[in-house]
Design brief:
This protein is mainly alpha-helical and 168 residues long. It has one domain. 70% of the residues lie in helices and 5% in strands. The chain contains six helices and two strands. It has a two-stranded antiparallel ribbon with strand order 1-2. A hairpin with a 2-residue loop joins strand 1 and strand 2. Helix 1 packs across helix 4, helix 1 crosses helix 6 and helix 5 crosses helix 6. The two termini are 30 Å apart.
Length: 168
């Protein structure tokens, strides 16, 4: 019985790594889509976005300014390396577990990933980030921020699910 159990575990391992790889790609693509969404429909006023929530959170935990404001130059444009790294790390940190969970529990993919997006929006933008004093409480956030973030998270999670379905 022990040999059979190990054989089953070994057979499942490639599926695990393949799914994690798909989650990685889905997270990168979803992250790019979310950046594009926020360029089209900015969630915050320029004043409220200086610094944006991820950068303010890094400030809250004591990350030095030279790291928070690190840039590289591409085609004469300054690219905010740390901001992009945090943005994509979050997207990957959600997409990989989501894809792994979806591998075993198909109900997680219900509504094309919309449950994921809605859950992340509520969990982070309405509960966790206000509790950490990174952003104002939900009642103090303007309607435009709620609209942009809620719809943006639905588009982001839908993209993750579309990539997952296309590659699995």
């Amino acid at each position: 019985m022990l040999r059979k159990k190990h054989a089953i575990a070994r057979a499942q391992l490639p599926g695990f790594f393949r799914t994690a790889g798909v989650g990685t790609l889905a997270g990168f693509v979803g992250g790019m889509v979310k950046i594009g969404w926020e360029a089209m429909l900015p969630p915050r006023t320029p004043e409220r976005d200086n610094p944006n929530p991820p950068m303010y959170m890094l400030e809250q935990v004591g990350v030095p300014e030279e790291i928070r404001k690190a840039t590289l130059t591409y085609n004469e444009n300054k690219v905010p390396v740390t901001a992009l790294a945090i943005h994509h790390a979050f997207s990957l940190g959600v997409a990989i577990p989501y894809c792994l969970i979806a591998r075993r529990h198909r109900g997680a993919t219900k509504y094309g990933g919309a449950l994921l997006g809605a859950g992340v929006w509520v969990g982070f933008h309405l509960l966790l980030l206000p509790a950490l004093k990174t952003i104002p409480s939900a009642s103090q956030q303007p309607a435009q921020e709620h609209i942009s973030e809620a719809l943006g998270h639905l588009v982001w999670s839908g993209t993750i699910e579309a990539v997952r379905r296309a590659l699995i």
